[in-house]
Amino acid sequence: MSEQQKQVQVLSDDYQKLQGELRSIIEARQKLESQQQENKGVQKEFAKLGEDANIYRLVGPVLLKQERKEAVMAVDGRLEFIEREIKRVEKQIAEVQERSEQKKMEVSDQHALLIGHID
């Protein structure tokens, strides 16, 4: 295997690693979006409840009574956290996509040089 072929192989391996990293980050974003939807659903249910409604929180195998205000604040806090995490993960996705595109171009350029060198 020539030096140029080795270079193309190394660049291709790097590109594959970036694609794997991108898949992992996208899965993390999907999980966050799922959690966001779940918490928004809880928020909507809270809006339907009267002020005197009993709210229970599942802690392990036990249901514990929780104050409405405390429950609403907890869900609102989780939603804020999830939204910040989604923004952070989307920024990561953009960065990895950019690095991946650059690596793809490097692979293409090296491959073209290799093919041109073989002919």
Provide the fold topology.
Elements: H1 3-48, E1 55-59, E2 62-66, H2 68-118
Antiparallel strand pairs: 1-2
Helix pairs in contact: 1-2
What does this structure look like?
This protein has 119 residues and is mostly helical. It contains 2 helices and 2 strands. Strands 1-2 form a two-stranded antiparallel sheet. The protein is rod-shaped and about 80 Å long. The two termini are 16 Å apart. 5% of the residues are buried.
Give a quick summary of the entry.
This protein has 119 residues and is mainly alpha-helical. It is 82% helix and 8% strand.
Radius of gyration: 24 Å
* Percent of sequence in beta strands: 5-15%
Residue share in helices? over 70%
Number of helices: 2
| Number of separate strands | 2
Query: Which structural category do the helix and sheet elements fall into?
Result: mainly alpha
In whole angstroms, the N-to-C terminal distance is: 16 Å
Give unreliable regions as ranges.
none
The arrangement of helices and strands along the chain is: HEEH
How is the biggest beta sheet arranged?
A: 2 strands, antiparallel
Mass-distribution shape: rod-shaped
What value does the average pLDDT take? 93
Please state how the strands of the largest beta sheet are arranged side by side: 1-2
